[in-house]
Amino acid sequence: MLGIIAFIFVFGLLVTVHEFGHLLFAKRAGIMCPEFAIGMGPKIFSYKRNETLYTIRLLPVGGYVMMAGSGMEQNPLTAGQVISVKRNEAGEVTHVILDDQHQFRQIEQLEVEESDFEDELFIQGIDKYTNERVRYMLADDAYFVREGDLVQIAPRHRQFKNKKPLPKFLTLFAGPLFNFILALVLCIIVAFMAGTPTTTVDKVMDDSPAARAGLQNGDTIKQLDNDKVNKFSDLKDILEKSKDKTYAMTIERDGQEKVINIKPDAQEIQVAKNKTEMSYQFGLYPEKTFSLTEPFIAGFKTFLYYSTFIFSLIVGLFTSIFTGGFSFDMLNGPVGIYKNTEKVASLGIIALLNWAAMLSVNLGLMNLLPIPALDGGRILFVLYEAIFRKPVNKKAEVAIITAGAIFLFFVMIMVTWNDIQRYFFN
Question: What residue stretches are annotated with the PDZ domain (predicted)?
């Protein structure tokens, strides 16, 4: 149960923040957003506020913001369909009535021949009363009437595709940007909760290099060889540079300085699937302080570390495709993320928040990949429009995005099946 709750919390937080970034910048740009969804598949909850329907859907595999003119909408009318319309005094259609749950007066019935709700904004058909062919334009304030609800039809100036490149770019980039902001905030929160490590020893691990060298609780580390140690992270930096040599460590004990010789243990640590790194450790835990300023610095450094580390993993992943080292074991789908979240949750809230921060960075970076159907792929179309002063051919864009979506769907199926086999049948 703990794993399920933790997964729902982490998944819901990451996706909600990502999609909220898109929604916020879309609305600021004047783009109509008919739906804001967390999850995919059938609706299990919905709430409408103003022109946007907020939904939670059954399958925890993502989310979306439906923007008018982004290619996600479907024309609900088909040739031969009989509908009712209501027009204003100018003869423009204000309501396209698709059900009988509203009682409108002075309506007309049409047998639809052709319709367009994106570019030309019209309905053409045969008037059922006069048998004449008519063509009506839509009013700026027009609605679909279906399932007892009013769904506004976006006029041209409120469609994503008709906005200038800059608001388009900001709207698309806002999702990953908000994931990076979330990760930074989580890292700072963790730093506040965990405290900032100092250079004073709090505990020496049994049978460790620190214990063998005679290091004691309360000792303050001042120097390694000729390198000053002003903060605990300096130890890691020095060890990464000089690795497993024997160091002359200057410590302060009971007000007096003392020099001891110490050699770190080298350990191979699994940092990712199919990737290990050597870690050099003295085997000690530092004392921690709690302040108002240090956690901001520590949190920012942790965020930078997660960002560079995950970016290097992504680069390695794509490099492996061309070098022949690629394996689906290098990827995690919803099942794998759930199982890992379950393990991390058992370690406590700090570990879970750190995990959420890493996943948030990962989600932001992955969405910026130049793959059609992801934010990065759509940003490329916007950059093309900004450079060449014209949008990508609509048919070509739809075909490329569709191909990208099919590719991602295939990858998701393969990764999920691989996760199921790995976690449930091995």
Answer: 187-255
Q: Which DSSP letter does residue 155 get?
A: P
Name the residue type at position 176.
Answer: P
Residue 422 lies in a domain: yes
What residue numbers bound the domain in which 185 lies? 1-34+159-195+290-426
Would you tell me how many other CB atoms lie within 10 Å of the CB of residue 411?
14
The whole-angstrom separation of Cα 155 and Cα 31 is 10
Q: Determine the Cα–Cα distance for residues 377 and 409; give it in Å rounded to an integer.
A: 15
| Residue after which a domain boundary falls, among 157, 182, 216 | 157
pLDDT in tens, 278-290: 788 899 999 988 8
Which residue in the list 19, 35, 108, 294 is annotated as catalytic? 19
Query: Are residue 389 and residue 422 in the same domain, yes or no?
Result: yes
Residue 94, classed as helix, strand or coil, is strand
Identify whether residues 165 and 204 lie together within a single domain: no
Q: Indicate the pTM of the whole model.
A: 0.84
Pair 426, 326 in one domain: yes
Picking from 184, 391, 207, the residue whose alpha carbon sits closest to that of residue 298 is 184
Q: Tell me whether residue 114 is one of the annotated catalytic residues.
A: no
- Spatial contact of 337 and 420, defined as CB atoms under 8 Å apart: no
Give every CB contact of residue 109 below 8 A, 6+ residues apart in sequence. 82, 83, 84, 85, 127, 128, 129
**Do 184 and 304 have their domain in common?**
yes
Whether 220 and 201 have beta carbons less than 8 Å apart is answered as yes
Q: Kindly state whether residue 272 falls inside one of the protein's structural domains.
A: no
In a domain, 348, yes or no: yes
